[in-house]
Amino acid sequence: MDHIARPKKVTIADIANSVGVSKNSVSLALRGRAGVGDDLRRSIIEKAVEMGYLGEHSVPEFSQDSCIVVILPEYVHGDAFFYSDVLWAIDNEVKTRGVCSVHSVVSKEMEEAGELPAIPKGMHSIGVLVVGIFDTGYVEKLKEMELPVMTVDIVYDGLPYIGSSNITGGLAATNKLIELGHKEIGFVGPIHTATSVYERWCGYNLAMQRANLPVEDRFCVLGKQGFQLFNTEEALGDYINSMDKYPTAWFCAGDRTAIVMIHLLTKMGIRVPDDISIMGFDDILAAQMVLPCLTTIRTDRRLMGKLAVNYFFEARKDKDMVVVSKIVPFELVERDSVGVPPTSTDM
Q: Could you tell me if 66 and 124 are in contact, meaning their C-beta atoms sit under 8 angstroms apart?
C-alpha cells in the first residue's frame, strides 16, 4: 500500500526563515508581545496566515502589554465635568479589549517646549488619543511619535476625530429659544479657543439668519485671541458688567459657562428664566444641580470615548479603511433655565 505523504507542519522556524528574522521575533509578533515594530509584526502575521500557521480568524489581538496613550493638557487632568465621562469610557473600552490606557498629562511648559510625553518602557503603543485643547504646533509635534493619532472633542486639521454635533446642536439650541419667542438672543463662548466652540457659534448664527433675526455684537461674548475659558465669574464678570443692556436669552457654548452666567445674573438680582433665559451645551452632571436646572444640549460623551478607542482596532483589521471623523448624536434636554421672554426688556 502506498503511503500518502502528510503535509509538513509549519513551524515558527519556517516562518522566521521565510521572513528573514529570528524565531524569537516571530514568537513575539504572534503572541502580541512588545519587542518588534508594527510593520515587522504585520509582515510576520501575514506570512503566518499565508503559510497556514494561522487561520484568518486566529490572528492575535493586541496583548496585555499593549496600550493606548491618552494625552491630556493640564486643565483637563482631574476634570469632574465634561471630560470625566470621556476618560471613563476610554479606560473601560480598552479593558474590554484586553489592553490598557496610559494617561500622560502635558504641562504648559512641556507644550511650549515641544516636549513629547514619555511612553512606559516595555509597552507596545497602539496609538495616541488627544483629549482636550493643545496648540496646533504641539499636535503637529505629536505626529513625530509615528503612531496613529485620533483626537477627541477638538478638531485639528488633518487628523481624524470623534466629536459632538456642534453646528446642528447649536442650531437646535438657538431654534428652541426662537420658538419660545425670543428675538434678542446673545452668544457666550470663547470662539478663538476651540473649533468646537466656533462651530456652536456657527450653528447659532445659522439659526438667527434663518429666522431673520439680527446677531447683535453687544449681546455676544466671544473672548480674545488665544486660549481662554469662561468657566469662572472672574473670567466673565467684566464682560457682563460692562453691558448697558441685556438680551432676553443667552446661548452659552458650554454648561460651565452657562452655570457661571446664572450665578452672575442671580447676584445682580436678575431672575433666570423670568428675566433672561440661559441655554447650555454638553449636559454635564452639574447642569441638574444648579438652580434653576439647566436646559442644554446633551452629547453622548461615553460613546465618544468608546468610538475613539474602537478606531485603532478597526484600522488594524482593515488596513485599507478610509479614515473618517465621526460625530455623536445629540439631544435637547429641557429643564428650567429657559422660558418665554419677559414683556419688558429694560434691565
A: yes
